[in-house]
Amino acid sequence: MTVMTDAQTGTDAATLPRAERAIGLFVAGLRLATLAQMLPSLVAALDQGEHRALTAVTWAVASVMALATAAVCVVRRRPPGTAWACLDTAVAVGLILVGLVTVPVELRTGSWIGFQSAYSLSVAGSLVGVRDVRIWGALIGALVAARAVYVLPIISTAADVPTVVGELFTMLGLAPLAWFGVGTVLRIAQDADESRAYAARLAREDEERKARAAIHNGTALMKILVDQGALGAVDSRTPSQVWVQAATELNRMRAYLAGGPGQAGDEPHDLAELVENIATEFADLPLDVVPDLARGTTLGSEATDVATALRSILINVRQHANATRVVLHAEELEDTPGWAVTVHDDGVGFDTRETTYGVGIRTLTLDQLSPHGIETTIDSVPGVGTTVTLTREGDR
Predict the structure, then answer these.
(1) What are phi and psi of 111, to 5 degrees?
(2) What Å distances lie between residue 334 and 132, 328, 331, 377, 393, CA to CA?
(3) Residue 141: how many CB atoms within 10 A of its CB?
(4) Which SUPFAM superfamilies match (predicted)?
(5) CA distances (Å), origin 378, targets 178, 216, 221, 311, 345
(6) pLDDT digits (tens, 9 = 90+) for 296-317
(7) Which sign, positive or negative, has the C-alpha torsion 138, 142, 143, 147?
């Protein structure tokens, strides 16, 4: 069978989980980097103030929480969820409030001895996994409020005000930027997954179309041979051209099943030449071919589909029309760029209002040609005949 690519089957790794994994690794790296910056100041922090034991506890809690958050990101392969983010924020707020006791006022900014400000900023950056804006806003608000309480006491003169304002606006600026940036990445990843799923669906539909194109015409010809065989007239009443065409279609089916395109693939791109080639395959029909008005009309990628559709239409004529005359006409349009191919027979005809089209007309003609901008018109009158017209107007 035809081997399909990862993009066709949709079996490759989805973009969204990979994006979430990358964001989770970013958060883990952020927390570990903050911890690495903190640790060199631990000894100096223990030497400051009168609360050595409480200071040691705050450092231990901050270290454990940073390591645990990084581990959660790595294990979950995504940033922490809402529950963990709430716990993380609560711990950070607690550390800030305890810092009012353990960290001297003059060391609360510009020093890793007062690690609480930088630590709370890394926690704010870890909240990117909380996609509910109300919950995220409440958590950021709690961190900003605690941080304000922590740094406001350093204001002793007007010169200290810019420092405090800068401390608070650092979180108010960077945290939303990170949150919106991650949201954009996730949306892009989701769009990529949806595009991949759409491409996979189109590829499956195209593969199904190729299968129908490879099998339908061949099975129709085999039905003719089987019906003739049932009448005991295969040798005497079946035209040799049917045998040749049946062998050709059988080779196409075998090529498709073996992994090939299942179609000729080398159809002429001159419309007149294509019509003439198709006509030679139906020499058993009372067929008049009038291609000269299409001489020099060039087909593009639609050539193979047009050829498949014409074969299907003529096979239907052979099977059902019981016609005494069939006209295959091709021309370049006069009033507008484009072309038209008409197949007319004087056979039994049918009522188009009451007829359900089979695979040959519905799929290999109507559905297959429509994406190329080719309109198919079917006119038929019972007892009079049928006309099928393929028209392409302009450059579509």
Answers:
(1) -150, 140
(2) 62, 19, 9, 19, 10
(3) 12
(4) ATPase domain of HSP90 chaperone/DNA topoisomerase II/histidine kinase (SSF55874)
(5) 60, 20, 22, 16, 12
(6) 999 988 898 898 889 889 888 8
(7) positive
Per-residue pLDDT, 326 = 94
Whole-number Cα distances in Å, 331 to 279, 303, 328:
15, 15, 10
Tell me how far apart the terminal alpha carbons of the chain are, to the nearest angstrom: 33
Q: How many residues does the chain have?
A: 396
pLDDT digits (tens, 9 = 90+) for 122-169: 999 999 999 999 999 999 999 999 999 999 998 988 888 988 898 888
| Cα–Cα distance for residue pair 348/71, rounded to 1 Å | 77
Distance CA 342, CA 156 (A): 93
Find which of 127-131, 195-199, 221-225 is predicted with most confidence, using mean pLDDT: 127-131
Residue type, 358: G
CA pair distance 386, 98, nearest whole angstrom: 91
Distance between CA atoms of residues 139 and 80, nearest Å: 14
Please return the burial class of 51, using the count of CB atoms within 10 Å of its CB with bins 0-12, 13-18 and 19+: middle
